[in-house]
């Protein structure tokens, strides 16, 4: 059951990230005319909402079974009610499911436009923040409880903004979509330029909040013991992937995006688009790999507690 809880956490985390970060990117990265040209955002947002809703429902059942130590407890109404009403993780999962249901309803009834993307972003942010209460963010007691919780929430939201934007960029760069359409290529370049400033702020938030979280979950005394535990090894893997993402992001900003501008000016952006596509796809893959690691880390005992 612990493995099921971890897997469902990963699925929900990925869906919530897309639900929050991708619509937000549409708002700040693209103009209204460029947004209207895209057919995939509504389908993606609806799909992410549905996956998150189903994942939250399954997670509640798995969490109940894991807490009871009996798979049959997942279908025990009294036990489910206890988890929902008397545990912070149960309340957080229900809140996440309600946010997903509201986002799905919004996709079904709201016309495509700023209202839909703004509402999806807010509901996705609620879903992302809820993970702080189903992981280690809400486990700290005493004077450090609030700083750790706030840092964890900000860390989750910043990751959502970054990886959600990468998801949108990857879809805009998919084979043939921009190379065959000069207007789409120009919109892509503008979106990349617009994301540069946002991305710098996001990285700063991730670094600062990551250090705060590490202080509580690893601690100064635990640094030397990181390689001796599953949590520590996965955290090191996460850091390695994060460094790789920083390198790819730097290449996108300072090399591939300017090259795309030159290609557009000369009427031959194909090579720049191909290089940019490969770099963004690798960065996106690294981002989702980090989400998978974070999903698993949330159910493991941190180094500081070992």
Question: Keywords, please?
Answer:
single chain; 306 residues; 2 domains; 0% strand
Structure overview:
With 306 residues, the chain is mainly α. It has 2 domains: 1-134; 141-306. The protein is built from 10 helices and no strands. The protein is globular. 42% of the residues are buried.
Evaluate the radius of gyration.
20 Å
Q: Characterize the biggest β-sheet.
A: none
- Give helix % range: over 70%
Uncertain segments = none
Distance between the termini: 22 Å
Global structural class:
mainly alpha
The 3D shape can be described as globular
- Strand fraction: under 5%
Quick recap:
The protein is 78% helix and 0% strand. It is an all-alpha fold and 306 residues long. It folds into two domains: 134 residues; 166 residues.
Task: Give the arrangement of secondary structure elements.
Layout lengths: L1 H28 L2 H5 L3 H29 L8 H10 L1 H22 L4 H17 L14 H28 L9 H36 L12 H37 L3 H28 L9
């Amino acid at each position: 059951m612990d493995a099921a809880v971890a897997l469902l956490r990963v699925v929900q985390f990925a869906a919530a990230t897309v639900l929050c970060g991708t619509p937000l990117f549409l708002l700040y990265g693209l103009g209204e005319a460029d947004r209207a040209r895209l057919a995939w955002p509504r389908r993606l947002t609806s799909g992410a909402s549905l996956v998150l809703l189903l994942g939250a429902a399954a997670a509640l059942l798995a969490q109940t079974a894991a807490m009871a130590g009996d798979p049959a407890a997942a279908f025990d109404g009294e036990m489910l009610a206890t988890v929902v009403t008397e545990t912070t993780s149960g309340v957080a999962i229900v809140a996440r499911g309600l946010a997903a249901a509201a986002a799905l309803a919004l996709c079904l009834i709201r016309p495509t436009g700023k209202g839909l993307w703004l509402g999806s972003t807010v509901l996705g942010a609620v879903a992302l923040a809820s993970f702080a209460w189903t992981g280690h963010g809400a486990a700290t007691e005493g004077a450090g409880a609030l700083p750790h919780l706030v840092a964890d929430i900000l860390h989750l939201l910043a990751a959502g903004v970054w990886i959600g934007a990468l998801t949108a960029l990857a879809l805009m760069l998919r084979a043939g979509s921009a190379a065959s359409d000069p207007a789409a290529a120009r919109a892509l370049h503008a979106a990349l330029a617009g994301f540069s400033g946002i991305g710098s702020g996001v990285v700063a938030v991730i670094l600062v909040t990551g250090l705060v979280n590490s202080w509580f979950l690893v601690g100064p005394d635990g640094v030397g013991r990181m390689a001796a535990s599953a949590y520590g090894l996965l955290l090191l893997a996460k850091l390695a992937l994060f460094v790789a993402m920083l390198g790819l992001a730097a290449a996108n900003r300072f090399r591939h995006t300017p090259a795309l501008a030159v290609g557009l000016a000369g009427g031959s952006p194909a090579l720049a688009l191909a290089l940019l596509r490969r770099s963004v796809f690798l960065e996106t893959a690294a981002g989702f790999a980090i989400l998978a690691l974070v999903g698993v880390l949330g159910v493991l005992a941190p180094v500081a507690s070992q």
